[in-house]
Amino acid sequence: MTATSLPDTSGATPAPDITISEFGAQKANSILASSGKENAGVRVFIKSGGCSGYQYGMAIDDRELDGDTIVYDRGVKLLVDHMSLPLLRGSEVDFVENMMGGGFTVHNPNATSSCGCGHSFRTDSSQAPDGEGSGGCASH
Hints:
Blueprint: E1 18-20, H1 22-34, E2 41-48, E3 54-61, E4 69-73, E5 76-80, H2 85-88, E6 91-98, E7 101-107, E8 113-114, E9 120-122
Parallel strand pairs: 1-6, 2-5
Antiparallel strand pairs: 2-3, 3-9, 4-5, 6-7, 8-9
Protein name: Heme biosynthesis protein HemY
InterPro entries: ATAP, ATAP_core_dom, FeS_cluster_insertion_CS, HesB-like_dom_sf
GO molecular function: 2 iron, 2 sulfur cluster binding; 4 iron, 4 sulfur cluster binding; iron ion binding
């Protein structure tokens, strides 16, 4: 039996896989403009590590790789690889400023627990890699 997707005839626009806040877009556009890379975007990815099992990563990237999901939001090109997408689906990239400085962060509805540092998270369907997931934030 083959599964078939029917076209969406409801007229509703599907939600993007990942978004960026207005303030995040302002900061990202400023960084992208000064990067010297034509057609660059913000690559958002997940890697094993951190104190909760997974870590967020971001980089300026002018390459579009096979399997990438590319979303344009608020004038920013966001690139997500096919392995990271399931863990990032529905997330919002933001920029926060506090007494320690500022930086990009990810508001991820898939994270069921996260480290106090905000750079590391875990989902219900994931286990931390062996030797990780315990201790404080010093592991990043």
